[in-house]
Amino acid sequence: MSLPKLTFAALLLxxxxxxxxxxAPGAEIAEHVAHPRVGAMFAGGDGAARHDSTLALGWVFGxxxxxxxxxxxxxxxxxxxxxxxxxxxxxxxxxxxxxxxxSIVLTYRSYAAGSESVLILGMHAxxxxxxxxxxxxxxxxxxxxxxxxDRWVLTPEDxxxxxxxxxxxxxxxxxxxxxS
Amino acid sequence: xxxxxxxxxxxxxxxxxxxxxxxxxxAMRRTxxxxxxxxxGRNIGIAVTGLAIFSSTMSGFGFVGGPGLVYSMGVASxxxxxxxxxxxxxNDFLIAKRLRMFAGFFDTxxxxxxxxxxxxxxxxxxxxxxxxxxxxxxxLATQILAMATVLQSxxxxxxxxxxxxxxACVVVSLSVLLFYCVTxxxxxxxxxxxxxxxxxxxxxxxxxxxxxxxxxxxxxxVMQTIALDDPEAAGPWGTLGMIGCLSWMFMFxxxxxxxxxxxxxxxxxGRLRDYRWxxxxxxxGYMVASLLWIGIGLVMRALVLQGAHPExxxxxxxxxxxxxxxxxxLLAGVVIAGLFAAIMSTADGFLNIxxxxxxxxxxxxxxxRSLEHELFWARTGTxxxxxxxxAFALYSHFQNARLVALLGAFGWGTFGAALVPVVAxxxxxxxxxxxxxxxxxxxxxxxNFSVEVFNISLPHNIHGGTLALLVSxxxxxGISYASPPPVLDPDVEAxxxx
Lengths: 180, 498
Fold this sequence. Notes:
heterodimer; A: two-stranded antiparallel ribbon; 2 strands; B: 498 residues; mainly alpha
């Protein structure tokens, strides 16, 4: 399957899941409510009850999003010669994010059910996974961009081809390909 | 020193504004053409590009609205900031190189210019420019109002300016903004962004430290206080719930690739290969500045819940109250200057792309050519947009508060929904058609406006911008697949092959 078709497929599945969420029961208790004591503050209430109909759908929604992001990045690289080198890194980064994402949902399920858990800096495991794992590790893609730039994003051949096109058109992009 | 708190804060603000004016004067001598005014001569370096993109991303919302969101909803809004890092990854792999190549090859001065070159269609240029202009007016009005409100609150603390009105504060702050934007164009904007971004990073680190020592037990005490009161608020989705957070993640991460003020700054870098280091600076700056957003919000929620601080009148008061009560006067001065920096660095980018839309893109789409004396009209257009946005902000403030909110909704989500398919996908997919692009832009504007005008709230806290983005992407793919493959200009095809 071509990359645009793969991206479109991920998008269609995401739309189906969003449709299922829109139709899922329990929308009336999913909303947060005004805090009982303090103004300008909300309270979440019973987490297990308000996520009862959407926790599994939410996991699928999050998973599809991570796959959609990966498909978009692959679409940006897309030349076979570059993609061959980029794919293992992309799969690794996305795999790590998917494992973290699944762990967040699973640990949250036990948190919402009221079970005790190890606290990290006062945070429940699910919150700690978001704050100390999912968030900082989302910068992995940027690290990959920096590390693989001249192999996957802009190869010397790409620069030469750009220069050739400019020359053929009689244009100048004076600094674009000048040596560092 | 505590007795001089207001004077110290005011001093920092005056120094900051003076620096902005100085940069404007410096840049004026280097701005000789429209390409200089809108594209900084496509000649800027790594640090300037990286910091300019970061500081334009973190608007006043990040310094005031962000802590307010955490105060009111707990951990929920981390799904906005965490997705920015992933979003930059998507954006950089997807579009950064190609957009810069199009800019250099077709000598474009704006994003709609590049879009017109890609699709060979003036309607697509017009719709892109209109989407940008609508978004700019809303965003800019909110930024101007925020700038004036902060200045008024500082001045009212002094004896001399205790009775200063909001209109006077709009005039003063807008004058500084317009001065450096008119004299130095985007060149002044990106160089003030460097200064502004640096101030924001320093302010965020210092405030984060101050926030965590505000309670004796540090982060542990903060999180346990919040969890004891309402476990959901300290959970991974905050009070908003899982689906609301995921809806934000989709809109903010994918939406990065459709923000015209950020994409335009990426098109200005001189050497193509220098872009390699830009995302590192952008993501680092954004993640560090986010510490202020999260730190202040969580600490103020814990302090109020403990009864150690009085209840806040509004959630947006979280940051000002924290600075007033828990920050050293010198730190408060740096942070307030950082707040102005956050607001102005976003506003100047909007002024510039808005001016490009009215003096370059819309005339080009309607008449097939640009205006004569374009640089003069660019400067005039900048002033005009600033004045109209300020008038709109004031009218809205005094007469109809919903107006700014209405166009303010034409912010991140609307730019994302309108431009991600057209730019991020369309520049990477030869099968994309101009008709699909036009339909995607028009539909996204209609959905976003309808959700806002009719005050529609979707079940399970799904954001209207998320729905608009999803629909516009589906239409873009669907219509392109259903149409015959377009015949591309050979140069466009060659550029898309690289």
